[in-house]
C-alpha cells in the first residue's frame, strides 16, 4: 500500500481515549475509534439497520450498536454477536506527523 492511498480524516486529539466519533471522509460516513491510543476506522452505519456506530458504546475493541446491541470488532469489522450476520468494512489507519489520522479507503 502506498502513501497516497491514505486520506486525511480528523485530528487524533479530537477523539478521547476509549471513545468513537463519526467523520465524513470523501463522502464516506466513517466511525473512528480510539482504543487506548490506537486508532481504528469502520463504516459508521450498522450492517443490520439504520444506526450509527458512533452513537454506540465502545468497550475495548468492540463497538456495540445503539439500536439492537450487536457488537463488531473495530480492528477487523467482524460481526461478533447477534443479531448481526454481516461484517462491517474496516479501514487501515495511521497517524501522521501533523497529528491527523489518515485512513486508507482502498480495498
Ligand atoms: S441496527 Fe445495529 S444491531 Fe440492529
Automatic annotation (TrEMBL):
Protein keywords: 2Fe-2S, Iron, Iron-sulfur, Metal-binding
Domain of life, per lineage: Bacteria
Residue span(s) of domain Rieske: 7-102
Entry annotated with the keyword Signal: no
Cofactor: [2Fe-2S] cluster
Signal peptide residue numbers: none
Keyword Transmembrane among UniProt keywords: no
Pfam families the UniProt entry points to: Rieske
InterPro entries the UniProt entry points to: Rieske_2Fe-2S, Rieske_2Fe-2S_sf
Family: Belongs to the bacterial ring-hydroxylating dioxygenase ferredoxin component family.
Protein name: Ferredoxin
Organism for this UniProt entry: Shewanella inventionis
Lineage: Bacteria, Pseudomonadati, Pseudomonadota, Gammaproteobacteria, Alteromonadales
Amino acid at each position: 500500500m502506498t502513501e497516497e492511498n491514505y486520506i486525511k480524516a480528523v485530528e487524533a486529539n479530537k477523539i478521547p481515549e476509549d471513545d468513537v466519533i463519526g467523520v465524513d471522509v470523501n463522502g464516506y460516513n466513517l466511525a473512528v475509534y480510539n482504543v487506548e491510543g490506537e486508532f481504528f476506522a469502520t463504516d459508521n452505519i450498522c450492517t443490520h439497520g439504520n444506526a450509527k456506530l458512533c452513537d454506540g458504546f465502545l468497550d475495548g475493541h468492540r463497538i456495540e450498536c445503539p439500536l439492537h446491541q450487536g457488537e463488531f470488532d473495530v480492528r477487523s469489522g467482524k460481526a461478533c454477536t447477534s443479531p448481526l450476520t454481516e461484517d462491517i468494512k474496516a479501514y487501515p489507519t495511521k497517524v501522521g506527523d501533523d497529528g491527523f489520522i489518515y485512513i486508507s479507503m482502498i480495498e
